[in-house]
Amino acid sequence: MFHTRDNFRLPLTLVALAAILAMAAPSFGQSSGNLRGRVTDGQGGGIAGAKITATAQNPPRMVLEGETDDEGNYRIMGLRANSYELVAEKEGLGSAAAVFSIREGQNLTVDMDFGAAAASATAALSEEDLANVERIEELKASFELGVAASAAGDYQEAISQFNIAVGIADFCHDCYQNIGIAQAELENWEEAEVAFQRVIELKPDYAAAYTGLSNVYNMLRRFDEAAEASAEAARLSGAGVGAATDPIAVYNQGIIFWNAQRFDEAKSQFQQTISLDPSHAEAHYFLAMANLNQGNMAEAATALEQYIELAPDGQYADQARGMLPQLRQ
Hints:
Layout (H helix, E strand, L loop, with lengths): L31 E9 L10 E6 L6 E5 L5 E8 L1 E9 L3 E9 L4 E3 L2 E2 H5 L1 H4 L3 H5 L4 H16 L3 H14 L4 H13 L3 H14 L4 H13 L3 H15 L9 H13 L3 H14 L4 H13 L3 H14 L6 H11 L2
Parallel strand pairs: 1-7, 1-8
Antiparallel strand pairs: 1-4, 2-3, 2-5, 5-6
């Protein structure tokens, strides 16, 4: 699999609470989690002294760094709830990358392997596709240069390198996916939309492309399309016999409905998130907000109490404590 990187206003109808709730809500919460893992060389040996960088994919754009020890182990603490791109690199040895999501207070393990990363530039292509690539080494080189440029924040250079790659193999869906991500980072929303749509043409079941589209549509305030794309991403991510639905995807869908002021649908998504993951603090908070919009004060108070219990130092904890006395009157 190629390496890919995958603003919410808070509309309320209760005037009495407007002063408390005048703050906009960033996506996915901000309480800390911990990340650990091991970086290996393709034969199972640990790589010492590799630089580790975790970059948040959604605002606020946190960047946290670390370094592997003599055994190749690393640890990064203080990550706020978000989706992240993780890059490990060491001069002369190469690099590896991964994408992960973390919740409030979660401890997560992500291992990376330089050997697997070296083969990634062709891993997503079928044997039939590979047989049609005459400049395979150039394709690999361009793709890896694009990944490196993206990791360094040079998105224009990343787009140039991935465009070279698709010039060699125009069926490379992960190349287009990375172009879409880079264009979104540059806030070129229309260009990002075109790239993600091309991914879907090439690989209709690629959930990450629908996630990218949902983010683009959300920024363009095309909320109905954002909701449809997010729902398709959630469906594809949970596809398969016995597969569990991803609570993060369900929560994200709720936030998109919330932005579109489709409060009944948002509430349903937050309730489903909680049924899948009762410890998802932000889902409790936004469930409270949805109940407030519907005038369900007792249900809102209960949800806020659960949020405070799960995230006493969370992003919305002070707001929640400020609202509770009014809701209990």
